[in-house]
Automatic annotation (TrEMBL):
Residues 24-253 form the Orotidine 5'-phosphate decarboxylase domain. InterPro entries: Aldolase_TIM, OMPdecase_AS, OMPdecase_type-2, OMPdeCOase_dom, RibuloseP-bd_barrel. The lineage of its organism: Archaea, Methanobacteriati, Methanobacteriota, Stenosarchaea group, Halobacteria. Belongs to the OMP decarboxylase family. Type 2 subfamily. One of its GO terms (biological process) is 'de novo' pyrimidine nucleobase biosynthetic process. It comes from the Archaea. The keyword Lyase applies. One of its GO terms (molecular function) is orotidine-5'-phosphate decarboxylase activity. This is Orotidine 5'-phosphate decarboxylase. It holds the Pfam family OMPdecase. Coiled coil: none annotated. It is an enzyme of class 4 (lyase).
Amino acid sequence: MNSTDTNRPFFDRVATRISRINSVISVGLDSDPNRIPAHLQTADLPRWAFNRRIIDATHEHTVCYKPNTAFYEDPSGWRALRETIAYAHGKDVPVLLDAKRADIGNTTRQYAELLNKADAITVNPYMGRDSLQPFLDRENKGVFILCRTSNPGGADLQDLELVTGETVYERIAALAEGWNTHGNVGLVVGATAPEELESLREYVPDLPFLVPGIGAQDGDPEAAVTYGLVDDVGLINSSRGIIFAGDDNGEQFADTAGVAAKRLKQQLNQFRDTA
Ligand SMILES: O=c1ccn([C@@H]2O[C@H](COP(=O)(O)O)[C@@H](O)[C@H]2O)c(=O)[nH]1
């Protein structure tokens, strides 16, 4: 069964890939133009040249690629991203756009077009259900709602306690569960907040998590796996920790990334029930 067949629900496709390659890692393609090795800078599309080599070296360990759109939002960047998505699909790896979108109706309908080519997206719940509806309506695409983010300021708003006694992040999780009418919703919960990860897993036992924050942000890999997965389905992401693993400006950068992806897969597999 194909993991990029959009006739199948996103989380079924992820489950297929997890069991096929025995891995739960998402590789973040945050291909900062300033960090692309010198020998690729003269390519027609340096970010695409870089990503192609990273995909070649890492795909056998990778459940999903997660390009953050921040690194592609210029004309040649969008071209590089389109090529990257098609290439990942050619390796049967789904692509999750980390775009953190949402807006009022007509604008958010336009944002949801980002899903035409990709398999899943991250969205921001701040504007409420109608701002997410066009994403949620795409039944076979994954929608990951920011819940408890990994950055230090994630606590500023998300940890506030409401009059109901819940925290803001718990309220977001409860709302997300109600919005999950097609079974295509997950939450973004950072590995840098292991206690919140644990309490959210109890709060919403059925929602898979996308867990960023291991590697460069020094989050907790054991908590990421233990609480991020539901029936062994979820995505544990590392971006810079893989694609810039050696901080290697030379031609070996892709091999170094491949070794880092394999090592992370093996590290995370120690904490899975089924590995
Ligand atoms: O809470 C969040 C939400 C998203 N991210 C994104 O994930 C990657 C992490 O990159 P690393 O290099 O592995 O630190 C990046 O695209 C962030 O924008 C997050 O870190 N935390």
